[in-house]
Amino acid sequence: MLSIENIEVTYHHTVQALRGLSLEVPKGRIVTLLGTNGAGKTTTLKAASNLLRLENGEVGEGRIRFKGEDTRHIAPDMLVKKGLFHVREGRRIFAEMTVEDNLIAASYALDGRPGLKADFDKVYDFFPQLRERRKQIAGYLSGGEQQMLAFGRAMIAQPEMILMDEPSLGLAPKVVEEIFETIRRLNAEDGTTMLVVEQNAGVAFSVADYGYIMESGQIVMEGDVPTLRNDPDIQSFYLGVG
Ligand code: ATP
């Protein structure tokens, strides 16, 4: 569904963030992209959703295709309409608006029309806390609830594929579990394809079928999750074993 082939990305014509990176996310699968700070994970997602230009980033060599179509000249909002939704790092909700208005705004952004009640009910069914807090100002939600809201905004768009940037960042283990359970459920129930960027390999492996490990702008290892779990380097660097 998403295919990235041998891309090079440079910021401000000087900082090379990706060096010939390739990855594949097949339809209906959950794939994780792991790496330490600064490895280039966020840049990879921004390249896929065409957000780099906003930050003086540029894809040089290489090819990116979503559902077989070259995405490099498709505007980010058009990519959302085509079914690719990027849940960005830091959650990016409207802090001064209520939970409900955040969801309504997501539906307007999609096609200029208000969403259907069933769409909102589905988000509230996945995240009952959001239903309880639907009249509250989003900026006052806990970090975990804000991540749920960011996820809920993505669900309103009914994407075929979601790019998730470090959903576990800064959250308590129990909340992380809840977010990842939702990733698993949305994939199982709707067949939503997912590319999940993480530093927390333990939780990422609990949902993913396949994983890529990146360092300094390149993929250094890839494989099925059971194989990665048994790799001694992954165990010591990412899983804290040994
Ligand atoms: P983190 O987990 O810390 O978010 P990451 O793996 O997502 O890290 P990126 O944010 O993609 O890494 O950054 C990759 C490299 O590109 C880093 O060296 C970073 O300093 C650089 N970089 C990222 N964004 C910009 C930008 N807007 N301008 C210049 N350099 C950037």
Automatic annotation (TrEMBL):
SUPFAM superfamilies: P-loop containing nucleoside triphosphate hydrolases (SSF52540). Residues 2-241 form the ABC transporter domain. GO terms for biological process: L-amino acid transport. The keyword Nucleotide-binding applies. InterPro entries: AAA+_ATPase (IPR003593), ABC_transporter-like_ATP-bd (IPR003439), ABC_transporter-like_CS (IPR017871), BCAA_Transport_ATP-bd_LivF (IPR052156), P-loop_NTPase (IPR027417). CDD domains: ABC_TM1139_LivF_branched (cd03224). Belongs to the ABC transporter superfamily. This is Amino acid/amide ABC transporter ATP-binding protein 2, HAAT family. It comes from Salinihabitans flavidus.
